[in-house]
Automatic annotation (TrEMBL):
<keyword id="KW-0813">Transport</keyword>
<dbReference type="Pfam" id="PF12911">
    <property type="entry name" value="OppC_N"/>
</dbReference>
<feature type="transmembrane region" description="Helical">
    <location>
        <begin position="114"/>
        <end position="136"/>
    </location>
</feature>
<keyword id="KW-1003">Cell membrane</keyword>
<dbReference type="InterPro" id="IPR035906">
    <property type="entry name" value="MetI-like_sf"/>
</dbReference>
<protein>
    <submittedName>
        <fullName>Oligopeptide transport system permease protein</fullName>
    </submittedName>
</protein>
<dbReference type="InterPro" id="IPR000515">
    <property type="entry name" value="MetI-like"/>
</dbReference>
<feature type="transmembrane region" description="Helical">
    <location>
        <begin position="47"/>
        <end position="69"/>
    </location>
</feature>
<dbReference type="InterPro" id="IPR050366">
    <property type="entry name" value="BP-dependent_transpt_permease"/>
</dbReference>
<keyword id="KW-0812">Transmembrane</keyword>
<comment type="similarity">
    <text>Belongs to the binding-protein-dependent transport system permease family.</text>
</comment>
<keyword id="KW-0472">Membrane</keyword>
<dbReference type="GO" id="GO:0055085">
    <property type="term" value="P:transmembrane transport"/>
</dbReference>
<feature type="domain" description="ABC transmembrane type-1">
    <location>
        <begin position="108"/>
        <end position="298"/>
    </location>
</feature>
<dbReference type="Pfam" id="PF00528">
    <property type="entry name" value="BPD_transp_1"/>
</dbReference>
<feature type="transmembrane region" description="Helical">
    <location>
        <begin position="156"/>
        <end position="182"/>
    </location>
</feature>
<keyword id="KW-1133">Transmembrane helix</keyword>
Amino acid sequence: MPENTDAVILDGVPAVAPDGAPVPVDKRDKPRSLWNDAWYDLSRKPIFYISALVILFLIVISIWPGLIASQDPLQCNLIDSQNGPSSGHWFGFDQQGCDVYTRTVYGARASVEVGIFSTLGVAVLGAVLGGLSGYFGGWLDSIISRVSDIFFGIPILLGGVVFLSAVKGGSVLTVSTFIILLGWPQLARIARGAVITAKEQDYVLAAKALGAGHGRILLRHIAPNALAPVIVWSTIALGTFISLEATLSFLGVGLKPPAVSWGIDISAAAEQIRNAPHMLLWPAGALSVTVLAFILLGDAVRDALDPKLR
């Protein structure tokens, strides 16, 4: 056995490097947190980088669409109605003579805005209500659970048709508000379960024994350890909310012209799919790629944060 007292001892045997030399104490691995382990796993997944780059690209063109589209999405000429792709107009023209490429690029803005605002609202409302319900229990848990059951009983598409039809002028704020109202119960249940599991851990019981208040226990001990399922669900839900906005706009109750949305363009192109399939191909393709990117990113984050899947 090597006589180097500075070597790391594992089960009575000094740990050695690949070359046979003992591993110094100062080189040993430090305990890693859940988030460090998650990042280590994510950094080894190509699908994480691919989906993240796609999402980053979508966010960039949502903020600065002029970087890759120099025309006005509302500038149309009926002379070009339904014309196919050409050298100056890669995606062709729609029924109104608008450039499909420009409208596809600008359509990302409304979809991403609805997805982000809805996800943030649902995450905050659902996490707060679910966290309080799981932590305090009792009558508060019963009230929040029964209210969430009522919202669960409302079909989201039917609710969207009724709610948004009663509201004049579809906008990003209106559609996002509707999604938040019907989207929070599912996340509240996830947060509730995570908090119930976390509050039974020894470190929480020790904090209570030391006299820590409810606010400190929730924010310092429970929230960081119950956050993982909320992040995973929110990542996947963002893509779902973008798809929901497009569906509502397709049905005519979501965003309305002159807003530029993939759902609006898909709705207008559906009637001309045989005569001008390019009108439907590009906005539908952009929507599919966006939703797929968020779902793949959510799956990668879930695999990284869930110890059972490692």
